[in-house]
Hints:
The complex is a heterodimer.
Chain A: H1 2-19, H2 28-38, H3 44-56, H4 63-99, H5 107-135, H6 139-154, H7 159-171
Chain B: H1 12-25, H2 31-41, H3 47-59, H4 64-107, H5 111-136, H6 146-158, H7 163-181
Amino acid sequence: MNDAVLADLALDFSFLSLLAVGGVITVLPEMHRSVVEVHGWMSGAEFADLFALAQVSPGPNILVVSLIGWKVAGLPGAAVATAAVCVPSSVLAFAVSKIWQRFRDARWRLAIEDGLVPVTVGLMFAGGYLITLSADDSVMGFAVTAVTAAVVLTTRIHPLWLFGAAGLLGLAGWV
Amino acid sequence: MSEAPPSTTPGTRELFLRFTQVAVSGFGGVGPWAQRMLVEERRWLSAEEFTDMMSLCQFLPGPNIVNVAVCVGARFHGVRGALAAFAGLMAAPFAIVLGLGVLYTQYGDLPEVASAFRGISAAAAGFIVAMGLKMAASRRLRSAMAVFAVITFISIALVRLPLGVFLLVAAPASVAVAFWRRK
């Protein structure tokens, strides 16, 4: 049973590794689909909590994958999921970094960049939309999400202050 | 920077340690810290080299900052360098986040913790929304190409198409249109 789960984690996340154009946040919707909807490993709210936990922790955003693996199959799950999401894309990056500079001004290279940016932005909004729906079920929840987004865009405040303030609002029972 | 003069060719140990340092300073995004370490403090890369590397790593699949670590490590010491930088970036944060995970399962059911998390996860969602808005300001989106952003959002967020199937069709289509527009 556990081996089957580890195999699922390895397969799903190495696939996601190669789909994550523009970073790991862009595969958030697909992760949600796989983890919550397809496998039923956790509820949408738990998914949103794990995501929040990874955000308040120092380090790359990718750590949400470690937490998902850990939640599903303990330490082996965390190790397998993390390796699966990092290795395929790292191997590709390793290979491409050796040749990319040669094609600096090539038309196809510029076209790839032009073409992938809009898709990445669409995926980013899809991720924000789905994680907001998972995290918020009250008007105040949506308000906290909106205010956080606005503050992040307009100030250079340290993120931990925002998480702290939001946590206090939650603790006070307002969210 | 009053630190020791920057070494032009860091050893693998140095790569590991510097990336660990970058990783544990990075709350809500490691990129800016990596830039500071690589370009300003250590001068392993020029600003231009960093920008080039970043744009490559952003469009390649996978976690951007992991790609940056791999590329920087590879540049100095090939596979060994890539592994050292990768391990430095991931090891400490991996341990920290799992520690938080343990605390969360232990105390997550307490009503206080659960209600605090309602606030924290709402804020975490706000960060993603902000990231999307920031990227949407990209110069590459100020054209008819923006249509592909809308199509992507609808297909993934609303229709809930599987990402693999969608990308297989949409990415080549979008790149083909971009190629044609660059004529």
